[in-house]
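Repro case for the chain-ordering regression, as requested:
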Amino acid sequence: MSNGKKFIALALLTFIVLIAVGVFANHHSGDPEGTKTGNRSDLVAEGVLKSKTVEPNAVGLQALADGLGHLGVGLNFTWLLVTGFLVLFMQVGFAFLVTGLTRAKNAGHMMMMNIAAFAVAFIAYYICGFAFQFGGVAPIIHLGGTGPLSSLFGHGSAGFIGLHGFFLQTGSTYDVGTIAFFLFQVVFMETAGYIIIGAIAERINFRTFLIAEVAMGALIYPIYGMWVWGGGWLAKLGVSAGLGHGAVDFAGSGVVHATGGWAALALAMLLGPRIGKYKKDGTPRAFPGHNQGYVVIGTLILVFGWMGFNPGSTFGAVDLRIAIVAVNTLISACLGFVFAMAWTWSRWGKPDISMSCNGMLAGLVAITAPCAFVAPWAAAMIGTIAGILVCYSVEFIDRRLRIDDPCGAISVHGVCGTWGVLAVGIFADGTYGAGWNGVPGHVTGFLYNWNFGQMGAQIIDVIVGFAWAWGITWIIFSIVKSRRSLRVPAEAEIEGIDMPEFGALCYPDFVLQAETLGADESELETAGSSVGSDREVSQ
Amino acid sequence: MKLVVAVVKPHKFEEVVSALHALGVKGMTLTEVRGHGRQRGHTEHYRGAEYSVEFIPKSRIELLVDDDEASKVVDTIAQAARTEKIGDGKVWVIPIEEALRIRTGERGSDAL
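-- result from build under test --
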């Protein structure tokens, strides 16, 4: 049996086993929703109370209730902030990942983009992005209500943009609940901001990059994010159009990852490929990343950070579904890794380190939207499909579309993010999400109720998400491109852009090696002249 | 005097050096180099794109010896570096006109 057949057999066997598990081991005798676990009988068990019935006086009852309320909200604050810090740490992972996947001569540029993205996009989000996205979100009960975020532009069932919280001051948003919420949301926006670096690496000039980060923090991310998470019209499709619970995206497969991926696609198309990436006959040339160790470290840090990204998106530790969210996330990550590893192994004879890591990230990205709504078997299925999908997507984008994406950002985040949003409409099993987006009942995909309403909302969500993120990025940077070059000069790109852009090398002892240029001289001249008009503008 | 130059597999370099020390050789110079012989390189895949590894890492050892020692040194190196697999490398010998020990100013065989 050939490797290809073995791979297909392995994939089919996995599907069959997972479906069987989903069908036959689906009894809800446990507490998957998390509402029954933990009550006053636990205090009896611990010896604090003598019996399950308490008979205090009214004053005592009031004080007890206040204390409990504060305790619960305090727990939720702790959870939200700590998981937010974990998401913040993902930025280290992205920096390692994208720097490892690119060439040593540009490593300083990659690292500088990563840290500059953090600061610049943060400021844009602080000034107006947060207000646009969450200025009119409904009160968040787990955080004791975020009352000040109450100004919605648009009809109540079709909100378009939020208007409270500019500079975290306007509309009385100088408020602990609101600002705790800001911390968690700003690090999510940063994730979308980092994603684009993977696709624009090694050729974008720093000024263009800063414009991209401002646009991401102020406009591209918040507007679509508002439509899905801020009480906007996509979230209300359930109320207004009867489509399930409206667009459901638990932790942002669509809002964060697909947005970042599609913005990256628009930028990569406008930039064009790196010099020498495609031979004269159009076949892609490999530019091996300079540090596979960084790639692995970065991926593992991202997995760790995802333990904040997904479980934190409950906004509260009192929602015990967090345990299932966390484990679903890891299941999907591991299956994504294994299937990307197996796919590259069967196809090219050896498992590819960077593609296997991309597979793990693909699994994480895909499970991000459905992680709270699906059972473990479905998480395994979603990760398996993501791991295979990312391999086909990388090859398709590289060979057929000939769009140069050095780190696979478009495939991992755009394609697998889209798959994750759609997966909610398929696999959501109706054990979680009571009253989600104002629609009674639990979020349920068509596998469990044969009703395609939820899937309809998810499909509209991914189409609108693509149109917005790709479209607005394309428009903004077409205008920028008509006025100045998006790229570094060709000579700088060939020699490495650390010195021309920042005046310092990441590795000062580094000697430029012949094959890292990836092209012979005649091809470099051809490529150089094709970006020649760009070069003149920028000088 | 002769200059003996050997290009060997990096993992054989330590064996070569200890064999030369056992022979009583005083000094040598090591350079990390890359190269290929008749076997050329090999092709690999990175993220689905094929690329060729034309030049393979090698260790290059150079040492100055007296005329009558050269053939013994060459044999020692060849014996220590041999794995009988493709890519074992080469040894060659070049005649040397003059040598000088910088610290003392000694010339010729005294400088070795």
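Ordering looks correct now. The radius of gyration of chain A is 24 Å.
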